[in-house]
Structure formats: C-alpha cells, structure tokens
Design brief:
With 334 residues, the chain is mostly helical. Helices cover 55% and strands 4% of the residues. Helix 1 runs antiparallel to helix 2 (32-49) and helix 7 (147-161) crosses helix 10. This is Recombinase.
Length: 334
Amino acid sequence: MKTKDVETDAGSTDLASYILAVTEQLKRERKFAAAHGYVSALHSFQDFAGGRGTPLPMDEVFTPMRLKAYEEWLMQKKKRPLKVNSVTSYMSSLRAVYNRWMPVGTPGHNPQLFAGVHTRVVSQTKRALRGWQMEKLLRAENDDLTREERRALAYFRLMFLCRGIPFIDLAHLRRQDLQGQYLVYLRHKTQKPMRVKLSPEALRLLRGLGQKTNPSSPYLLPILDAEIQDGWEQYLSYQIALRNFNRTLKQAVKRMLPGVPVSSYTARHTWATLAYHMGQSIGIISQSLGHSSIRVTETYLKPFENERIDEVNRQLIAAVKKGKWKRSMLYSIL
C-alpha cells in the first residue's frame, strides 16, 4: 500500500491505523527516523488519550483544542515532564501526519491548526564543554569506573579526537575505513566523504576498542550487531546502542565533572566550539565536521557568539585602561 493510497475520509480514519500504514511505507523507503518518530508520537498520544486501544478518529485528534490539551499533558506529566524541544518533536511528527492525511491546499486543510502549540526547536543552552573540562576527561584515570563506563568514556574521547565524529558515524565505521593513519568514510547523514588523520592517541584508542569486535564482523568497533540484516531492526538496534552509550557516559562523567550534562552530541559541539574560540574560520570548522553547509555550523556556534563578543569587549577595555590603545589604531578605525 502506498502512503498516498491510505484512506483520507475524516469520519472513518483512525490515527493508529493510518500511522501504522504510513510507517510501513516509510520503512520500505528506508526512512527509518521518520517512521520511528511517527510511531513514538502515536504511542505518546495514545497514552494521553487513555491507552493503546483507545479509538482515535482523525477529525477528533486534529483540532486546536485537542492538540493544546495534549501539549499541556506532555509538559505536566507527573513522572517526567517533557522539555519544549521534546514536545516539539512529538508535535512535528503529528503535523507531518496531518499534512499527509490532509495535504496543503485540499478542502478542509487548516494551515493554522498547529499555530498554538510548539513545532519549532528552541535554541538550548550550550552543549559544549570548556577547554579545561575536556582536558580533564582526556587525562582522567579510569580506575574507579566500571568496564562499561571506561568503554563509553573511551568512545567519547575518540569522538573528540576524530574532529567530533558523530556517534552514528563511529558506530558504522567499517574495517576498511581505517587506512593507515587515516579514517576514510562517508557521513551517515549526508554521505559526504570524510578523511580524518588520526593522532597517535586516537589510533591507540581505536585499535584498543577494536580488539573487542567480533573477528567476523565488518564493523571496526563492537557497537552494532552485524548479524542483524533487516533495515528497520538495524535502526532500532542503533537506537538502543545510542541510549546505552548516553546513559553510561553520563554515569562516567558524573564522577569527574559533577553537574555537567553530557551526551553523544557533546564531543562534536566541544570540538567545534574550541576550534571557534581558537580563531578558526567557520568555513574550516564546517569542512572539518562534514556539514552540508556553513549555516548548519553557525547553529552550533550561535550560543557562543555573545561569549566571544563579551571577551573582545573585555580585552578592548583592558587595553584602553593600560594605555595600549595607540593613536594610530584610532586613526585607522576612523
């Protein structure tokens, strides 16, 4: 069944049956992240509405009042209230479902339906470490960590040392991607070719971690199960590996940097931010990270612009107070 063939009669289409039909099509198209987002949103909305077996006619789901009530429920959950960006994720998936079911321009489509709920990602506080914090994690002894925590910390160090390689790219590295002192691979997200020269420390970490990999596995590191062949199951397996990594990494870092939040994104953001503060151009940083455009890199660095401006202001004022401001400099500005 093609996605566009899914029944669109507002009076008879149930949210669950519609989303499950759409996700099957998405799986066949290998759009696993979208399929996962749709199913997660469905399960969440079912929990809000009364349980997995609750009927959910589309014309009752997609009303401004119902969507607002769902948003408030998400943000006020007793066990674990969600932050704005998590709410945005669910709402964005529901909006995508609505636009499939009731395409823009068709009779009955309401372009303002989601105007009263969160559908845009909010810029969060910085997710990068300070230089001294990253140095501490690179130099820290691992004696008091569990085996799993030591491995998670080693992956984190390797991600930073390899120009902030994303965890998904690290997990999917193949044996042939290690070519002497270089990692040569394709970005999982953009298929952009990458060539990273490895420092001696990074090479030692990579080889040490690789010793735990099953000899028959095509993967360089023991993160993914090579025996899983189905694309959807591979996607779910990676999601489990990612959750386990984030949980274990937080446990390890908590011992060394109490109160400092970390995740799989932190190594990448830290590399980019430290390079930025060293004066590297955004273009070079963008190329180093394998971003599709400089605009993507700018979103990484935007939270740090004010810090850099404040530092320039501090240096300028200090220079004036110390009499280092030369008359010639004033003339050049004027």
